[in-house]
Amino acid sequence: MADQEPLTRIIEEIVAPGAAEVDRTGGFPRKAVDALADEGLLALTVPAAHGGTGQGPRAAADVVRRISTACGSTAMVVTMHYSAVAALAVADRADVLREIATGRHLSTLAFSEAGSRSHFWAPLGTATAEGDEVRLDAHKSWVTSAGQADSYVWSSRPLSAPGPMSLWLVRPGGPGLTVGAEFDGLGLRGNDSRPVTADGLRVPATALLGPDGAGLDLALGAVLPWFLLLNAAASVGLMEAVTRETTAHLSRTRLRHLDRSLAQQPEARATLARMRIETDRTAALVDTALTALEQGREDAQLLVLEVKAAADGSAAEVADLAMTACGGAAFRKELGIERRFRDSRAARVMAPTTTALLDFVGRALCGLPLLDGADA
Amino acid sequence: MADQEPLTRIIEEIVAPGAAEVDRTGGFPRKAVDALADEGLLALTVPAAHGGTGQGPRAAADVVRRISTACGSTAMVVTMHYSAVAALAVADRADVLREIATGRHLSTLAFSEAGSRSHFWAPLGTATAEGDEVRLDAHKSWVTSAGQADSYVWSSRPLSAPGPMSLWLVRPGGPGLTVGAEFDGLGLRGNDSRPVTADGLRVPATALLGPDGAGLDLALGAVLPWFLLLNAAASVGLMEAVTRETTAHLSRTRLRHLDRSLAQQPEARATLARMRIETDRTAALVDTALTALEQGREDAQLLVLEVKAAADGSAAEVADLAMTACGGAAFRKELGIERRFRDSRAARVMAPTTTALLDFVGRALCGLPLLDGADA
Amino acid sequence: MADQEPLTRIIEEIVAPGAAEVDRTGGFPRKAVDALADEGLLALTVPAAHGGTGQGPRAAADVVRRISTACGSTAMVVTMHYSAVAALAVADRADVLREIATGRHLSTLAFSEAGSRSHFWAPLGTATAEGDEVRLDAHKSWVTSAGQADSYVWSSRPLSAPGPMSLWLVRPGGPGLTVGAEFDGLGLRGNDSRPVTADGLRVPATALLGPDGAGLDLALGAVLPWFLLLNAAASVGLMEAVTRETTAHLSRTRLRHLDRSLAQQPEARATLARMRIETDRTAALVDTALTALEQGREDAQLLVLEVKAAADGSAAEVADLAMTACGGAAFRKELGIERRFRDSRAARVMAPTTTALLDFVGRALCGLPLLDGADA
Amino acid sequence: MADQEPLTRIIEEIVAPGAAEVDRTGGFPRKAVDALADEGLLALTVPAAHGGTGQGPRAAADVVRRISTACGSTAMVVTMHYSAVAALAVADRADVLREIATGRHLSTLAFSEAGSRSHFWAPLGTATAEGDEVRLDAHKSWVTSAGQADSYVWSSRPLSAPGPMSLWLVRPGGPGLTVGAEFDGLGLRGNDSRPVTADGLRVPATALLGPDGAGLDLALGAVLPWFLLLNAAASVGLMEAVTRETTAHLSRTRLRHLDRSLAQQPEARATLARMRIETDRTAALVDTALTALEQGREDAQLLVLEVKAAADGSAAEVADLAMTACGGAAFRKELGIERRFRDSRAARVMAPTTTALLDFVGRALCGLPLLDGADA
User: Fold this and answer.
1) Domains of chain A by range and CATH?
2) Least enclosed by CB within 10 Å: which of B27, C19, D267, D310?
C-alpha cells in the first residue's frame, strides 16, 4: 500500500474542504489533482519499469475509496486516470507512462458514444488511414476530465482488422477535437464530464494501443477490472462517509420535548444499522474480489464483474436511507448528505451499467459468452 | 370539480415553463400563485358562505396533482394554503376566509419546531397572556411560503388550558417575527421554506383558532386529512410526470448500433411498467380514500392516514426508477427528471413523516390511540 | 353483486373450516365446489340468455376475493372456472353454458405446456383433422382442477389457418387423455393442479371455440381480462386474511416481561401498517380497473394488464411481512399464516407471469404490440 | 480447518440423500449426527485440553455452511451444538466437554421462553435453591434437538445474585422436565425444535455455569458470537445451494418454441446474477467478521452483530428470487428449491431476531448499551 500520510493530508486539507464548492460550481478539483500528482499518487499504478510505484488494484482502490469519503468528483477523476493507465501499461506505452510517472499527466477514458450510449463495446466512431496518419471521427458522450486531461484512451471501430474495436491514445488540443458544453447535472458535478467530438481529428499511426481490432480484448481484459474495482471502491467510500455522518447527526441531535437524542429512537437506529451492514457487505465483497485477483483464483473474474453492480445498488440505497434517517436536516446543504445522495446515483448509469453487469454476471454463471452477436 | 380550463392554461403557460427556473434559483413561484388567485383557485375550498367555491378535498387534490405534474414547489405552496384554509374554515374565521375568497390572501401552516422537529404534535413554543394581547415565542423550523404568505396557522403550547396545543392566526410583518435565511436544499427549492422565529411577538387574543388547548384536535381532525390527501396528490402528480417523460424518452431515443429504440429493450420496459403500476396503485388509493371520506365510510380515517405514507415511498421509488431507466440522460437537467427525483425526497421527511404515519396506521389497526403519553 | 348470504355461509361453514385439511392432504375442495354450484355461484357469470346470473367481472372478483380470504386453492379453482366461462360465452357455446348454469359443470383452462412453459401464447400442441374428428396432441403442464373438471378450454396450434393458436372444448374421460400425477408442491396444494397429456385424443370438429387460428385473440381478448382480475382479487383476499390475522396476533400476544402486547412494539406496528397499505393499494387498483372496464375507459386494458403483476408482488411481500411480524408463531401451522405465505408464491409464476405482464404493460405504454415475432 | 474428507463423505452419502425425507417427515437427522460424532466433528470446537480438536469459529462455520448446502435442519442442530459448547468451554465444564470430545454427547441451547418470546435476554423462568439442589421452572418455547440432545445450556433468572440471568447445564430425562409436541411447521422441519417445560425440575447446584447472575454476560460474550456466525454460515450455505441449483435449472431447461434455454432469457440471468451477488456479499461479510475476530480487531464485535442480520435478509431474498427464476418448476418438490425457500424463513425470527440485531448494531454504532433498562 502506498505511503498514506500525504494522501491523508491532501484529503483533509484540500479535498474535503473544497468538496462543497466543487459541487456547487461544478468546477474541476484542479488543486486536489495537482497535489495528488505532486505526491506521486497519479503514478501509483504505473509499472516500476516506467518510473511508477508499480502498485496494483488494491492500493489504487484504497486511494479512491479514501478520496471518495470526501469528494466523489475527485474520486471519479482518479478512477478514470488509473483505468486509463491500466490500458497504457498493457499496451506498454512507455512515452506516456513516463510522463504520468513524473506527475505531469492526467489521463482518462473516452469510450461511451452518443449513438451506442452505454454499450461501450459497440463504438460507432471510425478510424480511417490517411497517409501516415489516422483520421478519427466520433461523438463521445461522456468523458470524465474532458477539458482537463492530458490524454484520452479512445475507442473506435478498427482501421481494417475484423473485430469490434480499436483503442487509441488521443492527446487533446489539436484541430478536429471539440470539447462540449460544461456538465450541469445531478451529481458528480466536478469531474468535468462532457461530450467530446472528433471530426476529422488526425492522430499518428503510433497512437494505436495494441493491435488494430483487439481493442475490446484490451478494454475487457485490462481496463474493465480496474474500472469496476475502483468504481466500487468509490461507492464504498461514499457509503462510509454518509454512514459516519448519519451516526454523528443522530447522536448529536436532540428531541427536546422527549429529552432524548435521535439515536434513542429505535427506527432511526435500525435504519443506521442497515446502512452500516450494507456498507460492510459491499466493502467485504470488494476486498474478497481483490484477494481473488491477487491470488489468481478461478472466481476472480466473476467477483470483479460483481463488485460494481453490488456497489452501485448499495450506495444508492445507503444514501437514500441516510436521507430518511436524517430527515429534513439532510435536505439542507450543511450535512453534506444530500450531495452524496446526488453523487450516489451516478454509478448505476455509468457504463457498464448495473443492467449490463447483471447480464455479464448471469452469462458468466451460465457459461455463456459475455456478449453475443445480437447485442454487439 | 372546479372549472379546469383556467388551471390548464396556468399550468401550461406559467407553471410548466417556469419550473426549471424556480428550481434553479430557488425563487418563489409568485407569478403562478397570483394567477391561481386571480382565477379563484386559492378560494376553491373556502366555504360558499364566506364567498368561496366551497369545494372539498377531491377538487383540491385534483388541482394539486395537476400543478404537481409541472412544478412540485408550486404544488406544495398550494397544499399548505388549502391545509391552512381547512383550519380557518373549521374555526369559522370569517375575516380571513373572506380575504382568501377574493384572492388577496395566501395562507400556510407553521407547525414544526426546532426543538421537537417533525413531532408537530408536541410544540415547545409558548403563548403567554399579556394584557389584551398574547405573546408568542417559538422557533419554527420549516414554514412553506415563509416570506410570502399573508398568514400562518401557528401552533403553540396552550395559554392556560390543559392539552398539548393551541392554534393561532399569525400575520407576518410585525416586530418580534423574523423570517430566517432562504432555503438552499435538495428539492422543492421554490416553496420558500424557511425557519420563522417568534421572539416576543404580540398577537391579539382573537388570533386564537378554536378553544385554547384544543389545537391538536383541530390539527388532527381538520387540517391533517387535507394535508395528507393533498400531499399524496402532489406525489401522484410527480409520478405521472416522470412516468410520462420516461415513456417519451425510451420511445424516442435510439441505440443506433442495434437500430432500435430504448423502448425495445426488455429491461427498460419492465422498469417503466413498474413505474406505471406504482403510480396507478397510489392514485387508486388516493381516489379510494377520497370516496371513503365523501361517503363517511368507517375506513375513511384509516385510508387517509395511509395515503401520504403510501405516496411518499411510491414517489421516491418511481423517481428513482426513472433515473435508472433513462440512464445518463436523466442525470442532466434537460429531461426534468433529476428535478423531480430531488423533489421526490421531500415528502418522506415532511411531518408527519413516513415513520410517524406508519405508526399512526399501525395504532389505528390495533385499536391504540394515535399518540400516547410517552411520545407526546 | 350476487346475493352474498349463501356465499358467506359456504365460506364460514365449509371453505374456512376445511382449508387446513385441503392444504395438508392436497385434496380437492369438492364439498365447497359442490356447495358453490348448488347456490348458483358457478353460474354467476354465465350470460342470462343461457340461464346464468349474467354478472360481470366485478361480481366474480368479489366472490373470488372472499373465498380467498379462507382458502387459496378453492379461490383458484373458481378463478379458472370463471375464466373458462368467459371463453365459452364469447364463443357462444350454448350447450356447455347451459350445463354450467344448472350447476352441473366445472370448467377450467388448459393452456401452459411443457415445451413452451409459461409462454401460453405459443402452444406446441397440435390439432389435426381426421375425418369428422380432430386429433389433439399436447403435453399440458399445469391444469387446475385437472382430475375434477367437466371440461377444459384447451389451446393448440391451428388446424390449418394461419395464426398462433386455436381453442377447443375438451371433455375429459375419453381415450387419449391422461391426467398426470397428483401435485405435491409448496402452495395452493388443493387445486388439483396436474399435467394433462393428449396423445391421439379425438374431439368432434364442433369442439373448436371460435374460428380456427383465432384462439390467441380469444385468449387475450376474452379470457385474459377475467383471469387477471380474478387472480388479483384472490391475492387481495389473501392479503386481507394475513393482515387481519397479524393484527389479531399482535394484539392478543403479550411480552410478559414488559407487560405489553406485541402491538405495543413500534417495529411490529410499522410492519403491520405496511401490510395494510400494500393491501389497500392493490385492492384500490383492482377496483379502479373494474370501474375502467365497466365504463369502457381508454385506460381499461392497461389497468387490467397491471392488476395481476401488482397483486402478485404485493401478496408475496405482505405474506412475507406477516411471517416476520408474527415471528416464530407464524412458523407453526396454527395461525394459518405459513399456509397463506406458501400460497402467496404461486401467483407470480402462474402464466402470464409477473415478468410477462411487466413486458406487456411496458409495451402497451410504448405503443408496441404485446407480442412480437421473435417471442411468439 | 478440520480434515474435510470425512465431512464431504457424510454430506454426500448421508446428509444430502436424506434431506428431502427429513423435511417431509420432520424426522431428526440422527444418522447424520451420529456420523458427525463418529468422525469427531461434534468435538471440533472442544478445547484440546479437554480432548477436542480445539478449532475456532472459522472451522465451525465452514462445517455448518457445507452441511447447510445439503440440509438446513442438520446445519441448525450442529449450530446449536457448537453454540452450547462455547458456553461450556468458557465455563470450563470439563465433565461434559470430555463427553463431547469422545463423540457421545450432543448439546444445545434452551433460551427462548413463552413469556418473553424472542427476548432471550429476559428469562422469566426461575431457579430456586432447595437444599443441595436447585429447582428450575420455565416454559422454554423453542429448543432445537429438544428430544434428542444429551444436554441443554439453560437460562433462568438468577438464584439470588442481582443481574438478569444465570445459565445451567441441564440433562434431560429426569422428572420435572417435559418435552412438548413435535414441531410441524414451515421449514427447518427436522431439527426437532419443540417446547420444553421445567416444572419443579431438580438439578445439582454444580449445574450452574459461571457465577450466579452472570449468565447474560456469558450468553452475550461467549455464546452469541458463535451462534451469530454459525447461523450466518448456514444461510450462506443455503444461498450457495439455491444459486447453484437455479444455475443448473436455467441452463438445462429449454423453451422449445424459441429453441433456447431459460439461461438465454435476460430477465432470468439478471435474477440469477442478483442471487449470486447477494450470496457472495454475505459470504464475504462472514469471512471479514471471522478475520476481525481472529485478529482481535476493534470492529470485530460490530461485524459479528452484523452477520446474522445480513444473512437472514439475504437468504430470504435469494431463496425468493430462486422461486421466481425457476418458475412453476420450483414450486414442485423435485428441485429442492421450495424446501430451501421454506427453510430460509427461519433465521429471521430465530432469537436474536433481525429486528433485535439491527437494534444492537445501531446501539453499538451510537455508543449506547446493547440493552437498556426499559427493554430488559
Assistant:
1) 4-105 (1.10.540.10), 110-213 (2.40.110.10), 216-365 (1.20.140.10)
2) B27
